[in-house]
Amino acid sequence: MSEDQSNIVTLKVRVTPEFREKIVETAKTNNRSMNQEIVARLEESFDNKDIGQEFFQKNLHLFLSAYCAGLESNYDDAISQLEESLSQTKNPEMIQFLEHRLQVNKILKTEMHRLMKNNSEKFSAELSKEVSQKHLTHPHLAKDKPLTPIKDEDIG
User: Which residue of 17, 79, 83, 121 has the fewest C-beta atoms within 10 A of its own C-beta?
Assistant: First the structure.
């Protein structure tokens, strides 16, 4: 070991025999000692702790767009079914109920569309800001073709 031994502490870990065997096999595969394998895996887990969060943040726009598009489609279906039911119903109480449900679904669809639009505009603004910052820090990128933001129409 090239590390200063005075800066190293011993850590005892309890594992099942099967788990120990996995570590032994993986260490052999990676040409490392068991200790080196365990330390490498632990270091990697700390280094990569934000990858899931970073991936989620960078793709939040796409997740929201897909989710909102699905909900908007559900509202379209509900509106169609309610309109069909209204055209076939004679009962005044049922008509009143269906008209109310129809209005609620139309409002929800409108709000969902507004959320999709806001999400798209926010994403476009963030993308433009990110591209501008890259051009400031990497002027040679300015010669490249600019990125085209994704529009709601491209997703739905």
Answer: 17
